[in-house]
DNA sequence: GAGCGTACTGCACGATCGGTCAGTCCGGTT
DNA sequence: AACCGGACTGACCGATCGTGCAGTACGCTC
């Protein structure tokens, strides 16, 4: 009898190693050899499980894109309460897919043309568009952009610039609160 | 007699080509060959003007780091007016060094150990630290992080996600205003 | 035990990588 | 005319890149 497979040998740990490498070094900077070494396999094995380096990227990012699409599909953004709930789930998404978000946010512009990346970009545009009320000003739009980009980036670069590292479970509600503060039109502003 | 040199032949356009390549493809993704082609020179010429690829990166990022250090050195952050003035100049800095900021923000984590990058990171930490008032809460700190990262990223990824592109000169004051709104403790917030 | 599919590997390939080096061209001095 | 130094180049190097391919070890079913 076999319990939970102790080492999820094979493709799944290749995906994890690839994700780490892509996030740390970018797609071109990461080599199949180093990914294979990190996963404890040979370079040939990588290309046995995945047709190409691009296919490996696709496999690594796909779950995050699926999750984001689901999140957007079930979102209710008609009232402030729904929007706030969505933002909390969005922050959860960011936490759940840190590495994927890092790849998309930092190295996405070099990956235009990769289907996964293009899909992810389209979803981000949709998030921004649906969050924006009909009567939003340009300034509101800029604030939304800063909020979304900032939230993603605080998470992605947390280990890089954070002087005093907040533990994830303290940062999560704070990030959700700040996001809500910036996105909800509640915040009164002069003129 | 010679007016302003029409094509600033040589090293300076190599630096520009390199900056564009690094910003678009990352340090490892950019090759000396492609940089040379973009500058209309041979690969050998790149290594004639710069000792190594790393030296080229240094030359490309150095002016931005110098400007940021100057900006920080002359900053007066003791009162809200001084802080607001600093933020406007910070936004100007982001606009003036878009490509350098893109390299540092997107690919900086892969460039740890490069002296220019480490210096830039240290300056960013100093900006965040000096902006933060003594009585700032964790939530304030998160909002500052979102604001700074978001501002940088809105500029860096503007061409990627912006649905309706704002011209620079409209975006600039909006970004400064939003930054001030987020950083200055002026914004009233419930509990 | 023959046969088969899955997981995995070593080896070799052409291309490209960053970098070295000897040499060419050319305007300015002497 | 001889010389010099800066700008620039082509040929070449060893290493590494992504990828193709033949082969091996193992567990399963007839």
Polypeptide structure, described:
2 copies of one chain form a homodimer. With about 190 residues, chain A is an all-alpha fold. Chain A has a single domain (about 10-185), classed as Tetracycline Repressor, domain 2. Helices cover about 70% and strands about 0% of the residues of chain A. Chain A is built from 10 helices and no strands. Chain A has helices at about 10-25, 30-40, 45-50, 55-75, 80-95, 100-105, 115-130, 140-155, 160, 170-185. Chain A is elongated, with a radius of gyration of 19 Å. The model of chain A is unreliable at about 1-5 and about 185-190 (pLDDT under 50). Chains A and B meet through helix 6, helix 7, helix 8 and helix 10 of A and helix 6, helix 7, helix 8 and helix 10 of B. Chain A binds a DNA duplex (30 and 30 nucleotides) through helix 3.
Average pLDDT of chain A, to the nearest integer? 89
CATH arch. level architecture of chain A: Orthogonal Bundle
Q: Secondary-structure element sequence of chain A?
A: HHHHHHHHHH
The count of strands of chain A amounts to: 0
Shape of chain A: elongated
CATH class of chain A: Mainly Alpha
Mind telling me the C-alpha Rg of chain A? 19 Å
- Oligomeric composition of the shown chains: homodimer
Give the % helix of chain A. over 70%
Number of helices of chain A: 10
Which percent band covers the strand fraction of chain A? Answer: under 5%
Full CATH superfamily name of chain A: Tetracycline Repressor, domain 2
Largest sheet of chain A: none
Largest interface (CB < 8 Å): A-B, 49 and 49 residues
The figure for the number of domains of chain A is 1
Separation, N- and C-terminal Cα atoms of chain A = 69 Å
Low-confidence stretches of chain A: 1-6, 186-191
At the fold tier of CATH, the topology name of chain A is Tetracycline Repressor, domain 2
Counting helices, strands and paired strands, the structural category of chain A is mainly alpha
């Amino acid at each position: 009898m076999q319990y939970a497979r102790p080492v999820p040998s094979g493709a799944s740990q290749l995906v994890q190693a690839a994700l780490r490498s892509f996030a740390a070094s970018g797609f071109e900077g990461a080599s199949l050899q180093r990914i294979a070494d990190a996963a404890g396999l040979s370079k040939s094995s990588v290309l046995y499980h995945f047709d190409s380096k691009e296919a490996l990227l696709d496999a690594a990012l796909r779950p995050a894109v699926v999750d984001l699409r689901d999140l957007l599909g079930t979102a209710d953004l008609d009232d402030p309460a729904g929007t706030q709930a969505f933002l909390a789930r969005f922050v959860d998404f960011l936490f759940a897919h840190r590495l994927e978000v890092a790849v998309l946010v930092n190295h996405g512009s070099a990956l235009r043309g990769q289907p996964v990346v293009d899909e992810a970009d389209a979803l981000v545009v949709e998030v921004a568009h649906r969050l924006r009320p009909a009567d939003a000003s340009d300034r509101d739009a800029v604030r939304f952009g800063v909020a979304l980009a900032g939230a993603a980036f605080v998470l992605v670069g947390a280990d890089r610039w954070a002087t005093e590292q907040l533990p994830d479970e303290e940062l999560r509600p704070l990030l959700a609160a700040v996001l809500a503060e910036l996105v909800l039109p509640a915040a009164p502003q002069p003129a």
